[in-house]
UniProtKB/TrEMBL annotation, chains A, B:
The keyword Oxidoreductase applies. This is Pyruvate dehydrogenase E1 component subunit beta. The keyword Metal-binding does not apply. Its cofactor is thiamine diphosphate. Transmembrane segments: none annotated. It comes from the Bacteria. SUPFAM superfamilies: Thiamin diphosphate-binding fold (THDP-binding) (SSF52518), TK C-terminal domain-like (SSF52922). PANTHER family: PYRUVATE DEHYDROGENASE E1 COMPONENT BETA SUBUNIT (PTHR43257), PYRUVATE DEHYDROGENASE E1 COMPONENT SUBUNIT BETA (PTHR43257:SF2). Keywords: Oxidoreductase, Pyruvate, Thiamine pyrophosphate. Residues 4-179 form the Transketolase-like pyrimidine-binding domain.
UniProtKB/TrEMBL annotation, chains C, D:
Residues 25-320 form the Dehydrogenase E1 component domain. SUPFAM superfamilies: Thiamin diphosphate-binding fold (THDP-binding) (SSF52518). CDD domains: TPP_E1_PDC_ADC_BCADC. Its cofactor is thiamine diphosphate. This is Acetoin:2,6-dichlorophenolindophenol oxidoreductase subunit alpha. It comes from Asanoa iriomotensis. The lineage of its organism: Bacteria, Bacillati, Actinomycetota, Actinomycetes, Micromonosporales.
Amino acid sequence: MARIRVRQAIASALSDAMREDESVLIFGEDIAAAEGPFKTSEGLLAEFGPLRVRDTPISEMGFVGAAVGAAAVGMRPVAEIMFMEFLGVALDQLVTEAAKFRYLSNGRVGVPLVVRASVGSGLGFGTQHSQTLENWLGATPGLKVAVPSDAQTAYGLLRSAIRDPDPVVVLEPRVLYAERGECVTGDAGIVPLGVARVPREGDALTVVALGQTVRAALAAAERIDAGIEVIDLSTVTPWDRETVLASVAKTGRLVTVEEAPASGGWGAEIVATVTTAAFRSLQAPPFRITAPDVPVPYNKALEARFSPGIGEIEHQLTTYLRTGEVPDPWWLREGVAA
Amino acid sequence: MARIRVRQAIASALSDAMREDESVLIFGEDIAAAEGPFKTSEGLLAEFGPLRVRDTPISEMGFVGAAVGAAAVGMRPVAEIMFMEFLGVALDQLVTEAAKFRYLSNGRVGVPLVVRASVGSGLGFGTQHSQTLENWLGATPGLKVAVPSDAQTAYGLLRSAIRDPDPVVVLEPRVLYAERGECVTGDAGIVPLGVARVPREGDALTVVALGQTVRAALAAAERIDAGIEVIDLSTVTPWDRETVLASVAKTGRLVTVEEAPASGGWGAEIVATVTTAAFRSLQAPPFRITAPDVPVPYNKALEARFSPGIGEIEHQLTTYLRTGEVPDPWWLREGVAA
Amino acid sequence: MTLVRSGDHVARREALADPVARYERMYEIRRFEERVNDLFAQGLIHGTTHLCAGQEALDVSLALELRATDIVTATYRGHGIALALGMPATDVLAEIMGKADGCTGGVGGSMHLCEPDVGLLPTFAIVGAGLPVAAGAALAFQTRGEDRVAVAVFGDGAANIGAFHEALNLAAVWKLPVVFVCDNNVYAEYSRIDLTTPLTDLHRRAGSYDIPGVPVDGMDVDATRAVLREAVSRARAGEGPTLVEAKTYRFAGHSRADQATYRPEGELERWRERDPLVLARAALVAGGAATEDDLAGLEKAVDEDLDAVAEAVAAGPDPTPAAMFRNIWAVAA
Amino acid sequence: MTLVRSGDHVARREALADPVARYERMYEIRRFEERVNDLFAQGLIHGTTHLCAGQEALDVSLALELRATDIVTATYRGHGIALALGMPATDVLAEIMGKADGCTGGVGGSMHLCEPDVGLLPTFAIVGAGLPVAAGAALAFQTRGEDRVAVAVFGDGAANIGAFHEALNLAAVWKLPVVFVCDNNVYAEYSRIDLTTPLTDLHRRAGSYDIPGVPVDGMDVDATRAVLREAVSRARAGEGPTLVEAKTYRFAGHSRADQATYRPEGELERWRERDPLVLARAALVAGGAATEDDLAGLEKAVDEDLDAVAEAVAAGPDPTPAAMFRNIWAVAA
Ligand SMILES: Cc1ncc(C[n+]2csc(CCOP(=O)(O)OP(=O)(O)O)c2C)c(N)n1
Ligand SMILES: Cc1ncc(C[n+]2csc(CCOP(=O)(O)OP(=O)(O)O)c2C)c(N)n1
Ligand SMILES: [Mg+2]
Ligand SMILES: [Mg+2]
């Protein structure tokens, strides 16, 4: 099994999908001739030619809308949004158009598009290029949102997204593009949408992570080594209630780990749903480990602290396991946020 | 104390603010000559003239951006977005620009803009004109979001929003515009941002409602009459933890009532935060009364069922109080959602 | 004319080859809208609606120049286009009345008509949203090497929104087989066009993308047809997009509540003289294609059919609550 | 030249009245960018950066034609504009290095420079976002009856995004005192302009809004200045917006990692012959405003100053974690 970079896994998923299905075409800014700002479409123009691999003008609303139209007449377009923020002018096409076409056509017009967008902090891109913003999409029946956490899920979720008959947004943690991991390609490497992974089992505590927090959560769990089950949510809407609830039924404790601020984050949905559904099996208060409620800072040291890293996760989980109480995050412990 | 329509309360707030402060100017589609598609700017063009009351082209991204620029150089613009959905092309200006200017200027450039947008279902406008979508804004440090529930809060929150030094979005439940209510105007009528109201006290159960669900929740509570405390959240970001936590400390039970689908809704944040902070005082599972996870339907009878009405709220709360368990919503009780 | 039901759409479309049938369809659209207006006034319709009186010539000529396999994105002001493209009045009215037999099953309403059989995607309630979508359909046709064409119909007001600009540029740089049809009916809601843009000859915006921009008298069905024919065949031949500006006039208010008191005096009356129905009817009689009597008979038949349609639709079933749970995900949840 | 620190911004701006000082500033910008590039290569700077070599003439002429009370919205490619407008190199470099003394205190970085004293709003990392904001600042000036002007500077790629269209139309219909300055440097990231739009003479897009559109040789500081002067005075006189297209060339890659291998052979070399510094320097010598020796001396002084700046900034303090909690809400949470 090859260890490849996440960006290569993505390029493989795209090329495998394009080989399998002629209706797959991809477009985005500088994804053809330049093979992608993050090199996630290496080799594709050469193999599939300029009709199926296209560079677009800087027109996110235009080309996301074009993906809607192409999908509505039977293509499976994959549009690349370089940074998630750029969807700030294109949500209309995703939330208010694509997600509703099936409903507004009595089931006769589906929109099997995929939008890939890079997200998150960690590379010094500053406050307008480091948000995650899955909250923009999460209240949209008809729209699916997946987030890979390594090469295999980057490959496998994208393959599923492209095969899916509904619109799917894949949010790729940018910081992972250069990371290497094992990656089975082909049908065996496909990761289904809507199913959470459980990369680490345990019976003392359920930790739900997503995207770039999965590896930090796993590393922290290794260090603590006290029956921590780590779930990689993988699909954030609609998310896998069964897996999470089954885990909490076993552990009686729930913690989510988000890279972004708590307010408006996906963790609230998990904590709220689990609390409602599994109230009597919870032995301690569920809580969220998150970034503080501030914009992503640029300075390297500050940016590194912003998102919960291994040390912070370890500290909070250890305190929680020891005391049964919700720990303070670093900015309260250190009295930094006045 | 006059009983006026919500839309008149809004027009009064705008004119009082414009009289008080020369830097207030308003613009939007058909808000000047036509006095607003929902008549929320009646009389303003006549009183304040065409420089301060302007009709815009259909350019939501353009004029929301113009509000950012005007606010950055000292005006207090109030931009009207006819239907919340139209912000789908303008989130960039609110979330990625306006909310971050103070941060990105070392505190030297504030953006005291207000965006008013009508939201919600109930008037047969169909699936692209009936969403609430506060989730688009909720993960944005630096941006405030308020939602009035009657004439007084429509007046008072808008006055506060206009005086506020930060960007504020006021989401006005469209179905309320024609409703009448008592409304104190002038300084005495101002309703602070960030402070929840408690229109009904009780010690058996805390119900948190927002916008158009406030009156339904109140009416249901009246019918049940069993110590139900109803909180009108009023500001959804940042929301008033103190008031809600104090109430739950007293009642030991929490229910939120949302007009829109559970997934991605504001209720998750309340339930999650309260559960984490007040776990030991909760005597029963907190839960959310919401619409089903579907797009807003057009047919009148279907639309009426979509959003939780008085009867549905009453049923769920009664069942909950009686059994201590989380009740099924109507679509599960009736086996409608296969 | 006999009541046409689902399935006969394409036949209904092809009937337009006959000039008399074109007039008949225009007449049907006009009367249909009047009925919708009445049903609203009677409280039998929920929500809002946007009538298309004044743009019948455009709707019918568009239907005439397209094939059923072509794709159209239109707006909330879409009853006329739906009828012109071949949807029977029953399907359209049932949707407007929120009935189970409506084209979306009653969950869409007046602003969201759809009929894939005649190429009509769900109509767009968001101004400008249909333009990039039409470009995208055209992109699919081009990629697959099909000789199909996509058409976006939109208003003068939509020419001020970003999606217009992005869609035209995208279509121009990729030479997509798409026609952008601007129905310049002088108003966007309650605002006259010159209040919201300094350039009221909107076809001139084509210059920003080096594509042809063509104005046409949208009240004249033959003139409009000729311009659309040229634009559609350019697209079909792979020569790229065209921006067509049809100069029309909105005879009704913007939506149902609007009395349109903001119009300058005499403006409506002047445009009424150029009512597309009046012009088309006179041309038929003058050209000898039909007599006054023929047309009066035909009009009566349409009226009667619409009576029957209205009655049948009103008596039709409402959707059950289960309808709102269908067609959200590809596989029922 | 001596190290200028915060507070002397306006003086630094006004110095540009002297043609030799203009050259000096252009030289400073060029050398500043080279240093930034080196610091990146050494791993001393985090993230990414976008160098402006090739657009110094535009930056300096803009600063020259504006007053300190005017407002500028610029982009992530904004080091040169910031320096031209009067920000001292220390403030800019400190920000790029994420230092506590940077203009945003180190939380913004290279893409987010800001200095209200010289009218620079936080620069925009989102393509096109600055255009409506500039229109809005102009709206404020117009409403208050001030004779201030707003300027949006943006790239050729930005002319394809919706915000461009909406902002120009809004400014045109309201006759706002704003100048839209398109820095057409031939590339948007790795794409040559003709790959993403059929109309490469972007000033022609002004026609869509019936406003003047003016091309200018952006490598020539005097020519650029003359065109900007005209546009700025039109705006200041209440005659409305102008679209200026400065034809420049991006000498560097798009951002730090980019080697720009996609350029056609010889293109860079041809443009290098029209390097704005080379042109300006030659003109000064030819016109007798300075000798070669004068200029060599001045260049040496700038180099030394930048050495000192780089050293001082590198030794400066980093922000503490508390910095990320400040300046989010008006009143500290
Ligand atoms: C993005 C957006 N903004 C505003 C509206 C509200 N709105 C509905 S129709 C309309 C006027 C559109 O005018 P025009 O494009 O000329 O089309 P017409 O109604 O005349 O057919 C407006 C502003 C909308 N639906 N979408
Ligand atoms: C809305 C948006 N889309 C894409 C990007 C990514 N991006 C950053 S710079 C750039 C190229 C912009 O080109 P141009 O406008 O010509 O300016 P230049 O970089 O040449 O100064 C792109 C695509 C962005 N920042 N914002
Ligand atoms: Mg119109
Ligand atoms: Mg460029």
